[in-house]
Amino acid sequence: MITRDTLVVVPAYNESAAVGDVVRALLDAGLDCVVVDDGSKDNTAEVARSAGAHVVVLPLNLGVGGALRCGFRYAVDRGYTRVVQCDADGQHPPSEIVRLLEVQAQESAHLVIGSRFLDGSSDYEIGRARRLMMRVLSGIIKRSSGLRLNDTTSGFRCIVEPLLSEFSVSYPVHYLGDTFEAALVAARSGYRVIETPIHIRERQAGNASASTLAAIRFIVRAVIATLAGLTFEIRSLDEVTAN
Amino acid sequence: MKQELVIALGGVGLAILVLFIARRHLLTLRYTVGWVVLAVVMTLSALLSGFVEPLANAVGMTATGVLLALASGTLLLICIQLSISVSGLSSQLRELIESEALLRAQVEEMNLPTNSPEESGG
Fold first, then answer.
1. Is the C or the N end of chain A the one with fewer CB within 10 Å?
2. Whether the predicted interface score ipTM is above 0.95
3. Which domain range does residue A131 map to?
4. Residues 6+ apart with CB under 8 A from A182
């Protein structure tokens, strides 16, 4: 199900230890990929480039959301109609990307979220704070959009036109806004959002960045943003298709 | 009377400080005006505190209290205005960073020589 309309966007911040292998695995699987170096202090960009990836270097650190939006713009500018976002630390094997693309094609979804917690996904250990956060976030999404999601913070997703163009213009930069809020806004704006189980590997290198404090802060922010209608905005599917 | 004098002196001090900073080009005219107006209002209303008296009596505060409340209210407004400016600036900056990165990528794909951020950064 790999076609030339698909680009894998890999946001990378100080991932020189892992990004080379990730890029080579993607290219071996026949996937086009762009690494968005998010203002890294190490030589992530050079490693990615010499592994054969297209590389976009952000001169300052924008956070995952900013790097992703830049990747989406890169994809839209070059005529790609489907993007898979994939971590630079080697957690998302190319075989799973191919599966995500297959599910997308079968279901004609605009946003496919690879879930670590659905039946059939691999065992994935998370802490208690994080588990509570996931539950609260799932509840918020269900209440405000009717969408049932298990893994609201998964960074493994497939985004398809016309949602891709909307995201390339407007996408949140704050912590986890790119995952939870993006799914919420897409579902609320009438796009077809689905979830599929995935198997992810342990991180190959680097450190996970989410701490308990950040999780709590994010819940507070998510609740305020959703209740007060402060989420980012995109054009709804109806508006886009009407034009 | 002592309190009014202190507030008036504070106003004059603020005006001098702001103008000093502005003359060193650390503050643009847009922001200088707001601060100078605040300083002038603070000074004048302290010196003319007799006019504030009826208002103070009406709300059950001292004239000094009213002046300080007005000054803090103005400071609050300036802070909110600054927050709005900073929010706008961060999204503009983000836009600019992305455009620069995309342009650089495009140039590199065309195989034209570019400066790396390390070489051009200061």
1. C
2. no
3. 6-242
4. A111, A167, A171, A172
